[in-house]
Structures are given as structure tokens and as C-alpha cells.
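Is this the right way to post C-alpha cells for a design question? Let me know if I should format differently. Anyway, here goes:
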């Protein structure tokens, strides 16, 4: 009752899953991904254990085709399932059970697999494969284009309700880290429109997270660049603006920081208050006098 894609970005190594269905909270059941390991989509009569088990198998070095074969072989209800898997090396595989409601099918390409069931037309999953292969840009944008292509071919026979998109980083990360984008639309009349809005909203916060990581790694120039990127996307993002202001004052002096603040045009009073509180808490080093001189 769903269409989905699992994919790897051949340039960055990022991995992702995107899905849409006329069923609420579809992302919680279908989409699974782990940085540097792979991504899994489990749908039709979804078997949610396929997500964590599939990632466990990929983490242990199994290939995408072997993971799909293993999960199907262990499942007494395999005829009711659809499954897509992509590994960190870009290999992909998929399964469509014989009892999945027509129109149902899948297609595997270079670095991706698409799957769909209970579609209006059998042209849906070929259109998805073509859209992903033919679309340029970052992984999130290509995943969104793939979902749009499915809907353009008629999509789910029952209509639209929920959607989700996950993108994780290349390379292994500690548990809980490396998740670049994780957005879900649980119930909406236009879930793909709302999903696109949430993806756009997630990007500046991903840049902010990156800036914070780089501050912790003492890469202050890199942190400032990432924070500037976040502010360019979302000028009112106070946390990111404050990182730019504080690091500019530290690296280039108060006058340079004041010049940036003048161009920023954001809320100086709130920025000053937040900066003082962060100094008081010991979270960042600093002198309240520098705050006053920069944001007065």
C-alpha cells in the first residue's frame, strides 16, 4: 500500500530512504537506515523486524542480495511482503511477494531500489527508477523527485496520506550520530508538499549540527562556515547566528563581528542575552564586555 526508494549517493556515500502511502505514520514502519551500513524499506504487509535485522546483516558484511534472500527465506509471510535494501557499497536488491496487491513491483538500479504496491498503474515504479537515475543534485532532492514521479504516474490507488524521508551520513558513526535528515509527515492532505517543506527546514538545522560538531573538534573556521550556511538558509536561526558572531569576534575581532551583525539584521537583544547565558553556564568561553561591544 506504499511506494518507496532506498538509495546511496554515489558522490557523497550518503544513504537514504523515502516513502509515501495512504496510511498514517508510514515512516515509522517502512524506513530504516544506518550511517555507513545501509538502508532498508519494508512494506506491503510490513514486517518491521526486517528493518533492524536487515541492518544487522549489512553491518556484519552481508551484501544487499544476500540480506533480501535471508529475510525472505526466514519469513512465512514472504508472499505478502515488499522489501528494498541498499548497502553502503551501493549494491541494491528488492523483493515483491506474489500476494502483494496489484499493481505491484520493483526495480533495482545502480545504487538504488524502488518498490510499489497497490498502485493505480504499473508504470509507477519504472517512473520512480527513471526519476532517481535522471535527477541531479543532493540525495534528499533526488529522493523527493522519485516520490513526485510516483505520484505523477497515479501513485497509491487509495490516495495520499503520509510520507517520510531519511538521509544518513557516509561512514560508520557512533550510535545516534550521523543522521542528516529525518522528517515524517504522519497525516496530511498533501504529504509530498509537506515533506518537501520539512526537508528544506531540516537542512539549516543539519548545518547547525555540523557547526556544533566542528566547534567540539576545534575546527573554528569550519564551524563558522557551517553556521554561516545555516543562517543563509534560515536567517532567524539564532543558534547558528550566535556561532558566527562569537567565532568572528574570536578569529577576526569585534569590528568584523559587528560588521557581520549589521548585515545579518537579526534580533541583537536576544542574541546578546543568549550569548551571556551561554558564557554564564560555562558552555562557551567569553567576556560579557565583548558581547556588549559586538551587539550593542
Amino acid at each position: 500500500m506504499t511506494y518507496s526508494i532506498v538509495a546511496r549517493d554515489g558522490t557523497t556515500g550518503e544513504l537514504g530512504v523515502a516513502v509515501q502511502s495512504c496510511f498514517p505514520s508510514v515512516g515509522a514502519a517502512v524506513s530504516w537506515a544506518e550511517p555507513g551500513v545501509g538502508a532498508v524499506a519494508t512494506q506491503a504487509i510490513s514486517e518491521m523486524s526486517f528493518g533492524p535485522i536487515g541492518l544487522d546483516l549489512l553491518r556484519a558484511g552481508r551484501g544487499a542480495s544476500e540480506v533480501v534472500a535471508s529475510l525472505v527465506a526466514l519469513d512465512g509471510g514472504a508472499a505478502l511482503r515488499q522489501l528494498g535494501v541498499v548497502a553502503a557499497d551501493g549494491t541494491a536488491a528488492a523483493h515483491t511477494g506474489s500476494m502483494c496487491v496489484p499493481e505491484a513491483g520493483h526495480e533495482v538500479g545502480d545504487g538504488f531500489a524502488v518498490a510499489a504496491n497497490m498502485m493505480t498503474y504499473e508504470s509507477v515504479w519504472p517512473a520512480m527508477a527513471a526519476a532517481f537515475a535522471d535527477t541531479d543534485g543532493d540525495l534528499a532532492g533526488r529522493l523527493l523527485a522519485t516520490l513526485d514521479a510516483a505520484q505523477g504516474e497515479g501513485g497509491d490507488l487509495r490516495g495520499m496520506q503520509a510520507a517520510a524521508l531519511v538521509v544518513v551520513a557516509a561512514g560508520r558513526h557512533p550510535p545516534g550520530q550521523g543522521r542528516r535528515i529525518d522528517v515524517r509527515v504522519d497525516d496530511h492532505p498533501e504529504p509530498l508538499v509537506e515533506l518537501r517543506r520539512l526537508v528544506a527546514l531540516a537542512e539549516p538545522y543539519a548545518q547547525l549540527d555540523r557547526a556544533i560538531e566542528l566547534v567540539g573538534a576545534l575546527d573554528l573556521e569550519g564551524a563558522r562556515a557551517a553556521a554561516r550556511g545555516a543562517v543563509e538558509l534560515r536567517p532567524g536561526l539564532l543558534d547558528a547566528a550566535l556561532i558566527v558572531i562569537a567565532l568572528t569576534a574570536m578569529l577576526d575581532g569585534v569590528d568584523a563581528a559587528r560588521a557581520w551583525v549589521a548585515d545579518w539584521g537579526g534580533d541583537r537583544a536576544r542574541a546578546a542575552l543568549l550569548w551571556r547565558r551561554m558564557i554564564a553556564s560555562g558552555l562557551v568561553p567569553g567576556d560579557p564586555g565583548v558581547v556588549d561591544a559586538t551587539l550593542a
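Format looks fine. Someone answered above. Worth noting: The chain has eleven helices and ten strands. Strands lie at 2-8, 15-21, 31-34, 38-44, 81-87, 92-96, 105-109, 112-116, 162-168, 179-185.
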